[in-house]
Amino acid sequence: MKIKFFYTLLFITIITSYSFAQSKSVTLSGIVKDKADHTVLPYVNVVLKTEKDNAFVSGTVTDEEGRFSLSKIKSGNYFIEVSYIGYTTKKEIVFVGNLTDYLDLKTIEIATASTTLNEVVITTKTNEISEKMDKKTFSIKDNISQSGGSILQAIQNLPSVTTQDGKVQLRGNDKVTVLIDGKQTALTGFGNATGLDNIPASAIERIEIINNPSAKYDANGNAGIINIIYKKNKKNGFNGKIGLTTGLGSLWVRKENLPAITPQYTFTPKINPSVSLNYRKDKVNVFFQGDYLYTETLNKNEFVTRNYANGDIINSQLKRNRNTHFTTLKSGIDYAINDQNSLTVSGMFGSEKIIDRGDQPFFNSDYSQRLRLWQFLEDELKTTVMATASYQHKFKEPGRLINAGFNYTFHREDEKYFYDNYLPSTTGTDAFKLISDEQVYDFNLDYIAPFKYGKLETGIKLRNRNIPTNMQFIPGENSVLDSNAGGWATYKELIPAVYGNYVFENKKWEAELGLRIEYVKIQYDVNPDHVVYKSDGYNYTQPFPNLRLAYKINDNDKISVFYNRRVDRPNEVDIRIFPKYDDAEIIKVGNPALRPQFTNSVELGYKTTWEKGSLYNAVYHRFAAGTITRISSTVAPSKLIYATFQNVDKSYNTGLETILSQEFSKLYSLNINLNAYRNQIDAFTVENKYPTAHTFSAEQQEIISGNLKVNNSFRFANNLDAQLTAIYLAPDIIAQGKIKARFSLDLGLKKTIQKGKGELFLNATDLLNTMIIKKEINGQGFNYISNDFYETQVIRLGYSYKF
Length: 803
Fold this sequence. Notes:
disordered N terminus; Maltoporin, Chain A; mainly beta; globular; 22-stranded antiparallel beta barrel; Ferric Hydroxamate Uptake Protein, Chain A, domain 1; Immunoglobulin-like
């Protein structure tokens, strides 16, 4: 059945496809000189015409230095005509491609009228599809069915993207790097993606998905990169946009609580006001974006049956009611010093306040006796401050420039935890307080130079990161944690890197070749009195190459091959030594001995376009060494489960991706995304050191899985748009187990009012209330089955106005 399922998906992939077709605007530039003495020629006429019918496209004259520039040129076949009194008119064939915004034709030499000219042919690539196959861009305003929520919710119906346990995945892999405006920040994590469920989508202009990043990006994140672009207007004068979204979730109780615990959240309110302001005059552009998101959420409602090797069966429910306040403020100024130099200074403030109140009762096999009741309060305040300065120098040749940037980030985690443990005869309370202050300094210097056939990108980057952490632990009566669980630890990270990336394009071929070399030094200093862990660290110097080679079959069809090598470094929370309750009987703890995971990826892609549709197919394979995964184990005679990250050697991810887009009429268009993959984790044996040294072994795990997304877009009369989205997630493997299939249906309506300045929307996620997380976990000495009926169904109503 697995083989049949796999080949069925392969067949579907072969017969369908997708591409996001749009035409790039390119700037052509060069310099005109006298062929005899090589002096520059001012005031020379330069005209661009179509090769097919000799139609005029654009024209200009050279400046006093002999330079010319033609902007907003669409992809296509042209010739450039250079004429001047006393000189013979010269024509050169030009192919305008789509891999770069600038083409530098360098020097064009013209001779006096008595000179016989030989034609010089300049070849660059032509392609109406401007987007490279490694990068896709999506506008948030077009995502009607998910408007008004968080970024994590907004990206769920984008191609390649899924979510699981609050983490974003690309093609079934959660090793994703998330950037904000091209930079890593503490809001989304400097390691793998975090916090996306608490950032309002109202602050975002668009999202870029980069499956095969080039060498100019940090090497971290083997699954790829998601780049979140914040709103920033650049219209002249004073303008802006205000908006308000409200909603309700948990519209009914999907499964009743176990006896004698506090009620589940129902009819949970959501509110998201936002404002975007901009003022531009002469050389100055001032911008501001402010968003506030308040939500009440049934964040978890998991019913679990645990079976132990000695025959014991325990039933439990973990219910978590969450209140979240999230504020983001971003402001800055763009200053054009002159035509060649500009400066941008900006700042961002983020405040995330989360209060969780939860219950976890434990019952025997037939629910006749309550064995234990565990209640908790978690109070977290996360504060982020960022300051950014970027300087750009443009050379006289358009497209040739230097960018220099400095970014400072401060991020504080202030967390308090209180856990009441009610046993038949005793009651105890554990209390924790954790403070973590993260400081990150980033500096980058980048140089870009356009050529006749492409461009060169090169640069350096330096990062210094420091995270001191302190935790106070006050154990209560019958606490399951040791009394020395608290203390201090300091994480230090130094990463200098250098990169070079060359892009080449001509009439039939595209190529991109890059190399990034990173030196990484990690030191994790641990309280010397810690009962288990000691200070640890590592360093390496590693190359991270990337390659893309593409052949253009014709104007509408192109085939590409990709290769890159990337790394996933353990994040600080993955190695943090302080134990933390995941639930009453699952203890999460870090592992300072954790080491990076290195991944090699290859991909073969094909895309085509036609008049009202487009097509993308890809076959990909990833091979990871030193795979990082969380291991859950027990230490006899205790039934506590300890969850610790470990390197478990090799894993593989092989898949097929298809995206089909078709406009059937002005009323209806369809977008289908199919991703089928095979995941495998080799058999392994590791040693967990906490709470005492013990070994854990697992057999090889493999599964064929995938997901299917169907977006139906409707455009009715009177400026009314609608979107109906269906998402199916097939069963998949997780650490030591499987997650079962999931399905949801989302609906959105949007109407433009007030002569295009106003907009109303109404949407509902998980209309049928079918998105239930079902897991099966097999540990050493135990297994459990869980069903999580957390909040997925939300109805939102929103309004925005542009002025």
